[in-house]
């Protein structure tokens, strides 16, 4: 007798879960040398890059939340720090720098600029976004130094999840925390504005003719400076400068004081320059001019050019 036995076996296969996974990187934002005396803003950018894997054709919402950074923030600006000194800046999601880049966990502003990434038929995909930065104008009192803010840990919360929606107002989804820095250098700097000296119209030069002009100097806080005046086009000394009309001249001098006793010259004459220290605000220096009594040349317009030099 033949007997047949039928064996049945159940083949159990492991279940594979294809959860999405994303990794991020952000380049440093380097503003370089920043002129805080100009009154205008300074711009820079950084690049956010993301690589994701998951199910083919899967749509992944990315919510790149950025907080204050290590420099902290005020109600209207993020800050970079150099010791106890700060420099105000802001991050934006648009090139016009009108929409602040924020975080659901930070009240100003309360959302991050989300964007969607759709994976390809192999279940992978990548994308990049530009982070726009601006150092705000009107910071003439910023001390010359190197300023820094670091984004890491709780300051960076890049959330991502598979969803058809665009809601970045919550902390839903997986998280990655890349680290990047924002830095700027405020160099020592000075700006000059000059007021010319006009001795007016005169007949006979039989007595002193006095007039004043000025130098307005704005330097970054704590920046020492020295202002010197050249001896003019044909002059040989601070009190023997010459205004010319052709070959004819009128002698004049430039001084630091109203009594016209302290000459204002250049480094070739020790003690004749004017020194100071910047505060971030304009400092006005008066130049006292005098045409002494002398032989009167023929009538006409007499001029000279004096070079103002600021050393800092």
UniProtKB/TrEMBL annotation:
It comes from the Bacteria. Residues 15-151, 179-309 form the Spore coat protein U/FanG domain. Keywords: Capsid protein, Signal, Virion. Pfam families: SCPU. InterPro entries: Spore_coat_component, Spore_coat_U/FanG. Residues 1-19 form the signal peptide. Coiled coil: none annotated. PANTHER family: PROTEIN U-RELATED (PTHR37089). This is Spore coat protein u. It comes from Rhizobium loti (Mesorhizobium loti).
């Amino acid at each position: 007798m033949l007997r047949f036995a039928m064996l049945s076996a159940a083949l159990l296969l492991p279940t594979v879960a294809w959860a999405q996974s994303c990794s991020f990187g952000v380049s440093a934002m380097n503003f370089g040398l920043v002129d805080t005396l100009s009154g205008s803003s300074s711009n820079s950018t950084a690049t956010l890059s993301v690589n994701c894997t998951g199910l083919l054709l899967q749509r992944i919402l990315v919510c790149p939340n950025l907080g204050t950074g290590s420099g902290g923030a005020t109600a209207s600006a993020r800050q970079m720090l150099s010791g106890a000194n700060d420099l105000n800046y802001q991050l934006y999601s648009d090139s016009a720098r009108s929409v602040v880049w924020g975080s659901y966990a930070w009240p100003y502003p309360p959302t991050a600029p989300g964007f969607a990434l759709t994976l390809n038929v192999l279940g992978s995909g990548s994308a990049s976004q530009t982070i726009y930065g601006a150092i705000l104008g009107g910071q003439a009192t910023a001390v010359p130094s190197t300023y820094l803010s670091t984004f890491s840990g709780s300051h960076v919360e890049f959330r991502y999840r598979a969803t058809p929606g665009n809601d970045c107002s919550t902390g839903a989804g997986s998280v990655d925390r890349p680290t990047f820095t924002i830095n700027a250098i405020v160099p020592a700097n000075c700006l000059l504005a000059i007021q010319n000296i006009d001795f007016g119209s005169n007949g006979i030069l039989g007595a002193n003719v006095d007039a004043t002009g000025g130098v307005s100097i704005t330097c970054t806080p704590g920046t020492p400076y020295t202002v010197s005046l050249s001896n003019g086009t044909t002059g040989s000394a601070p009190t023997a400068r010459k205004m010319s009309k052709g070959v004819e001249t009128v002698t004049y001098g430039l001084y630091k004081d109203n009594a016209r006793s302290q000459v204002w010259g250049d480094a070739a004459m020790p003690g004749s320059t004017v020194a100071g220290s910047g505060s971030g605000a304009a400092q006005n220096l008066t130049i006292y001019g005098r045409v002494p009594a002398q032989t009167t040349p023929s009538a006409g317009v007499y001029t000279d050019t004096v070079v103002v030099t600021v050393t800092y």
